[in-house]
């Protein structure tokens, strides 16, 4: 069975194709503006949609007629962006008479990890611009064990970077500053039970940046943010008694965060899994994989049920395939 997946929840328009065992192609085209303006990002997606679908089909070495299922990220995400992906999926489905399925973006991050890395039952730390959550399977659903109460780590990092004069994408420069920082400055460590918040430490770091070396400020800010999410993940692992951890999302590329996850898991006798970056970030292949899994388990989506769900929570999805 060949599935074509479409991702468009935020700044990336992605199309990926998989069969039952492998990812055949995974093409992304990201909006590169400063921050994300939802309408401008949606305009970008609409412009690149057709050519991204064609590129993914060509890269997979298939014909559009070979596609058995069209999967799309139905939510959560930015409404205008989601609607471009949904419209592209409906167009392919209706014009070619291919079944359609709408899937949850956050769960796709987890399931592509399980599909590729052979993991069974991980606690997942999902860190990106829009999302920072700790997810684990319990009682038939992916439950949210902890999450940000305001912005995602990636959003915090991008806002901080802009404030100190670094343009998007800033990840490599931030990672470089983290590695060069030598003095830890006092940053608010904001964790409330299993949830956390990043806006307070962001404000503090921007203030510090006026009077302290940028390497020390960046190191202090990110060391604090990473410590918070790793602490909450450790507690989720302890509570659920699971022994696998999955690190996903665009910010999973950060070397210091990866190092912290490895240290924590080693101390607990757990194992860390991190998918390759092209499937760790927002991408179409993960949407294809989850669509294929759900369709295989019997889930069906009617065209009339393909309206986007901007605030679709992970724990609202009945996990019928596990
Ligand atoms: Fe994502």
Structure description:
The chain is an alpha/beta fold and 322 residues long. Helices cover 44% and strands 20% of the residues. The chain folds into two domains: 3-109 and 279-316, Nucleotidyltransferase, domain 5; 122-275, Nucleotidyltransferase, domain 5 (2-Layer Sandwich). β4, α2 and β5 (100-104) form a beta-alpha-beta unit. The longest helix has 27 residues, at 214-240. The model has no long low-confidence stretch (mean pLDDT 97). It binds fe (ii) ion. Fe (ii) ion binds at residues 105, 109, 128, 131, 249, 282.
Give a brief description.
This protein is an alpha/beta fold and 322 residues long.
Secondary structure: elements and pairs:
Elements: E1 3-7, E2 12-18, E3 23-30, H1 38-60, E4 69-75, H2 79-96, E5 100-104, H3 105-117, E6 123-127, E7 132-138, E8 141-147, H4 153-163, H5 171-180, E9 191-192, E10 195-196, H6 199-208, H7 214-240, E11 244-248, H8 255-268, E12 271-273, H9 277-280, H10 284-296
Parallel strand pairs: 1-4, 4-5, 6-11, 11-12
Antiparallel strand pairs: 1-2, 2-3, 6-7, 7-8, 9-10
The site of fe (ii) ion has 6 residues, from helix 3.
């Amino acid at each position: 069975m060949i599935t074509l997946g479409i991702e468009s929840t935020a700044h990336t328009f992605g199309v990926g194709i998989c069969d039952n065992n492998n990812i055949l192609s995974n093409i992304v085209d990201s909006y590169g503006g400063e921050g994300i303006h939802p309408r401008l990002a949606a305009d970008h997606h609409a412009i690149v949609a057709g050519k991204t679908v064609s590129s993914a089909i060509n890269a997979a070495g298939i014909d559009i007629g070979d596609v058995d299922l069209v999967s799309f990220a139905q939510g959560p995400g930015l409404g205008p962006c989601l609607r471009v992906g949904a419209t592209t999926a409906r167009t392919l489905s209706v014009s070619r008479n291919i079944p359609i399925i709408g899937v949850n973006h956050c769960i796709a991050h987890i399931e592509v990890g399980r599909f590729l890395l052979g993991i069974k039952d991980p606690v997942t730390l999902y860190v990106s611009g829009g999302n920072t959550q700790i997810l684990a399977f319990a009682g038939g659903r992916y439950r949210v064990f902890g999450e940000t109460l305001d912005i995602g780590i990636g959003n915090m990092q991008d806002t901080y970077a802009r404030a100190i004069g670094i343009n998007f994408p800033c990840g490599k420069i931030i990672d470089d500053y983290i590695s060069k920082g030598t003095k830890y400055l006092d940053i608010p460590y904001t964790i409330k039970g299993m949830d956390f918040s990043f806006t307070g430490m962001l404000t503090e770091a921007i203030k510090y940046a006026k009077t302290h070396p940028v390497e020390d400020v960046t190191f202090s800010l990110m060391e604090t943010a990473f410590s918070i999410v790793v602490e909450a993940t450790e507690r989720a692992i302890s509570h659920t008694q699971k022994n696998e951890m999955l690190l996903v999302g665009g910010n999973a590329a950060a070397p210091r965060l990866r190092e912290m996850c490895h240290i924590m898991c080693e101390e607990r006798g757990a194992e860390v899994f991190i998918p390759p970056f092209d499937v760790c970030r927002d991408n179409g292949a993960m949407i294809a994989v989850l669509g294929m899994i759900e369709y295989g388990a019997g889930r069906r989506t009617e065209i009339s049920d393909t309206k986007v769900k901007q605030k679709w929570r992970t724990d609202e999805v009945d996990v019928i395939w596990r």
